[in-house]
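[Automated response] Your request has been received and processed.

Submitted sequence:
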Amino acid sequence: MSVWSKGSKCMRITTVISVVSTKGGSGKTTTAANLGGLYAALGLKVLLIDADMQPSLTKYYPTQPLASGLNEVIARGGLIQDSDITPTLRENLYIVASNMDASVQAYLKDRGDSLLLLKRTVSQPIIRDQFDVVIIDTQGAKGELQRTAAMAADIMLSPLKPDMMNYSEFVTGTLDMLNSINVMADMVPSMKSAPLSIYVNCMERTVDAREIDNHVRDQFRTRPGVRLLDTKLPDSTVYKLARTAQVPVHEMEGTRRNGGPGAFELMHNLAHEILPHLKGLWVGGQAPAERITNDTSNGGAK
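Generated structure:
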């Protein structure tokens, strides 16, 4: 893995993941924070970009003092400077903080290049030469900020809660938003957005949740441009506890719980599905089954 240093000329492939959904409360910020924390723990240099006017991602991890943030980046037309990137207190993890107000939507709407603004940001050498993964958190509503964040992605990731309200909003909101940013794709291939990956989030142990999950899989299993991930994250208080503790959830629940996979295993599974070349990499160097076997052989089964 290449090492980040100011002015480094080493070649790296940077993957930009935008977490998108027009439904508030779907788990975008939790997803962005936990994936960022896990990828950083695996040794990748990770940049979080908080593109939500409610700065929840900015507040998730303790940081060094903020000098500037996404407001300044947008005001410069997408040009980013060193001062806009703030180190968190976690190794390998950095953030472009949200410091915007409601006027940013009107500003973006008046710009003819607003759709490509964040794409311009993440294409600059200051990011491409320094970071392995960029994760963009987005707002839970339609708007220019959501659209420009979606268009910046190499991978779009959408958490979907298995209930009718969230499913309906996904179909009428998120998919419509994606269609709207692809209206020129046939004429200008560079205006085509990245494929969309969906994963089921906050899965409850109810008949209704299972039926919605099955329906989603029937609807999107073969849909072009949509990839349905196998990983399902449960409805669990451990994610709220991790947020309160300001740590990634894989540190809160290290092994298996209730006979099933815990947050450590599930977050690795999700991270591996999103970036398959990382499959086989585990924080601490051991997969959960190996950890349990070793703990048992040492007389310390968990």
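Summary generated for your ticket: The beta strands are 15-19, 46-51, 86-87, 93-96, 133-138, 155-160, 196-203, 226-234. The first helix runs from residue 28 to 41.
If you did not submit this request, please reply to this message.
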